[in-house]
Amino acid sequence: MRLQGKTAIITGGANGIGRATTEIFLREGASVVIADRDTETGLALAQGDERALFVATDVSSDASVAELVRRTVDHFGGVDIVVHCAGVAIAGTVTSTEPERWQRVLDVNLGSLYRICHEVVPHMQATGGSVVTIASVQGMFGWPNWAAYAASKAGMFGLIRQMAVEYASDTIRFNAISPGAIATQLGANTSRLEPGFVQGPDSTAQDGETPTPAATKPRLLQSGKPEDIAQAALFLASDEAAYISGQNLVVDGVLTCSAT
Ligand SMILES: NC(=O)c1ccc[n+]([C@@H]2O[C@H](COP(=O)([O-])OP(=O)(O)OC[C@H]3O[C@@H](n4cnc5c(N)ncnc54)[C@H](O)[C@@H]3O)[C@@H](O)[C@H]2O)c1
């Protein structure tokens, strides 16, 4: 087992990519703290597994994230790994995105990475650790109508590189994964959790990244599965990636390989 004896916090761990990561990390021997706003689903996922703990968390709140890390350390004695999957997809161009929606997307998706690392890094400094954040190919290339979302994901790369350098001497590694189109309920979950923010002039309740299943296509041309991203997170979180830090791993089939 690749994560035996490790404790991992997985934000957004109740659904989609985070849920697949929770399941794989538990199978690989980790103790897992599922940190999510979706209490019903998160509690059900953790139930009956003594290595799983659900902590109701809003990653946009300083106090909530501080409480998450405090409860993790109290319960499991420390924290070795963070996989930051919690995020929302809210559409809009720069002109159609009002300041409140811009701020909300930046706060939930990017401010949360600062917030979690601010709390967790002091607990990793003596022992080392690994932080993996789920960014997006939309942080690397432009798709119309996703201004704030793209900015929130692109900002992750700068922060990841910065922390990789600042905490290399503590053997804490920081990496990003950039998925392409992955079959999850991101758009639906965003609509449920952010009803006041998804409605805007250019917004759609539908996530631009939520794919239509196309099982007849060759595998590398289809939408990805949450497990495809979770397996990449497992590698980056594990000791197998001990010499990898400050990087962005693209997991998108061949989506961004072609110019056409
Ligand atoms: N699905 C895709 O195609 C795709 C592509 C690229 C990047 N991503 C990124 O992957 C990550 C996971 O997305 P997903 O597709 O699994 O979505 P999802 O909606 O299935 O899961 C997101 C989870 O985050 C939780 N969450 C949302 N806001 C939260 C908050 N403020 N505090 C705590 N938890 C919160 C939700 O409850 C949910 O469980 C996101 O950061 C997303 O931007 C997804």
SSE topology sketch:
Elements: E1 7-11, H1 16-27, E2 31-36, H2 39-46, E3 52-56, H3 62-76, E4 81-84, H4 99-124, E5 129-134, H5 147-166, E6 172-179, H6 186-193, H7 195-198, H8 226-237, E7 248-251
Helix pairs in contact: 1-8, 3-4, 4-5
Helix content: 40-55%
The outline comes out as globular
What is the annotated CATH architecture of the domain at 7-86 and 112-180 and 225-251?
3-Layer(aba) Sandwich
List ligands, each type once. Answer: nicotinamide-adenine-dinucleotide
Low-confidence stretches: 205-209
User: What's the main sheet like?
Assistant: 7 strands, parallel
Q: What is the gyration radius calculated from CA atoms?
A: 17 Å
- The DSSP helix count reads 8
- How do the helices and strands follow one another from N- to C-terminus? EHEHEHEHEHEHHHE
Structure class: alpha/beta
The span between the termini is 41 Å
CATH superfamily of the domain at 7-86 and 112-180 and 225-251: NAD(P)-binding Rossmann-like Domain
Arithmetic mean pLDDT: 95
- Give the DSSP E fraction (strand runs of 2 or more residues): 5-15%
What topology, given as strand order, has the largest sheet? 3-2-1-4-5-6-7
Q: Using the coordinates above, name the CATH class of the domain at 7-86 and 112-180 and 225-251.
A: Alpha Beta
How many beta strands in the DSSP annotation? 7
CATH topology of the domain at 7-86 and 112-180 and 225-251: Rossmann fold
